Backbone:
């Protein structure tokens, strides 16, 4: 019942990017998050060796990148465009935190092509460029220094989108066989027996040692195999007495 | 009742970083998310002009960076160390998705100093380095190309941490005065009146026009001022008849 992955329908549009290295780094950021459609509006330098170098293993994204002359051209076939900008600049177009907007963007991408639009490194998106987008997103950042590098902003944006789409599942942990209550009781009993024998524990004045050790053991979430190792260690230490 | 901001207690530790540009870009990524404590374990080149250039406005983070010889030294005063690595390499140390681990890391940072640990660009963290960390985090990424740039990984990690800490609130939208039901009914009535007068709407055979227009208006979430503008436009168009 899993719907088709919508990420390939999402383009990243870089408007008037100044530094070709950032274009390459943005391509890499996209590919790590499963996006592949890069559109460059009037880039200052492209293609460029710096773009190739920073793209690393995402050269294919650069090779397929489309260069267009205007933002209107980039958005002509898009059914939703999300413009990214720093906080609250444009009063007429309220920005939303990208995390809260990402699920709606994924849903739109399931219905038609979508664009994430990023402005120039120095000036960001102009007001006109923002008004060409139907949504306006902000990546929360420090008020003291909110200036994310362009490719870093693309990385965060694509990461949020991929997580909102449930695109990548972190693989299950290797199967663990958790110890049972009986395993733990046997371990406690064996430890207590050895500590009495060694003189560390006096059962007439036990204090809170048992409580402390049980609290510690509970936190460990021991596996069956680890209980066996601990038994072996205790047996060995017991023999040394 | 807001607790003290824990982000300054979180160090980013880069182990054996190869490219000074990545060190600078990582410093910038940290500062945009409110982190300031950078620790470099045996960097290949530092200080370096590339680090300064990529740090942009985060030169103060670079200036205060501490260079140490070993990971053990970097972690000596830390009460929790989270090692970042690609998916599921180390079977004995199950990785968790960083988003699910970040809140626990914020809580730990409220109690004592914490480190986020990143490995070398090419080889990542070694098994020994991972075992020196008490937690192991993974940033979900495409199976086809999971290789985030080092500074991009630092950006995503710090971003998640800042959001888990609730560090930055996107400023409230500018206050909107939403139109009331009476505003909307008056607008519908005026539109209907004009469309009847113009001949577009025949009230004996209205079809579903009213329904379509109400559905559209509902989606607009109109503001009071916008209702006034639309009334003005309708009045103007009505006069032209």
Residues:
């Amino acid at each position: 019942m899993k719907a088709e992955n919508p990420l390939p329908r999402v383009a990243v549009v870089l408007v008037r990017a100044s530094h070709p290295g950032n274009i390459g780094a943005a391509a890499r950021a996209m590919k790590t998050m499963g996006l592949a459609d890069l559109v460059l509006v009037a880039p200052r330098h492209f293609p460029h060796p710096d773009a190739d170098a920073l793209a690393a293993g995402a050269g294919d994204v650069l090779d397929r990148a489309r260069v267009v002359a205007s933002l209107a051209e980039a958005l002509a076939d898009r059914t939703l465009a999300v413009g990214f900008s720093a906080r609250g600049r444009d009063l007429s177009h309220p920005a939303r935190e990208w995390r809260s907007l990402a699920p709606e963007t994924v849903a739109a991408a399931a219905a038609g092509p979508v664009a994430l639009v990023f402005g120039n490194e120095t000036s960001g998106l102009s007001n006109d460029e923002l008004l060409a987008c139907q949504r306006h997103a902000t990546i929360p950042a420090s008020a003291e220094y909110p200036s994310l590098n362009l490719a870093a902003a693309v990385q965060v944006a694509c990461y949020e989108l991929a997580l909102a789409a449930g695109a990548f599942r972190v693989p299950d942990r290797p199967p663990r066989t958790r110890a049972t209550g009986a395993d733990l009781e046997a371990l406690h009993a064996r430890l207590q027996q050895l500590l009495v024998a060694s003189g560390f524990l006096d059962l007439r004045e036990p204090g809170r040692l048992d409580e402390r050790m049980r609290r510690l053991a509970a936190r460990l979430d021991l596996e069956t195999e680890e209980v066996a190792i601990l038994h072996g260690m205790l047996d060995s230490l017991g023999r040394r007495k």
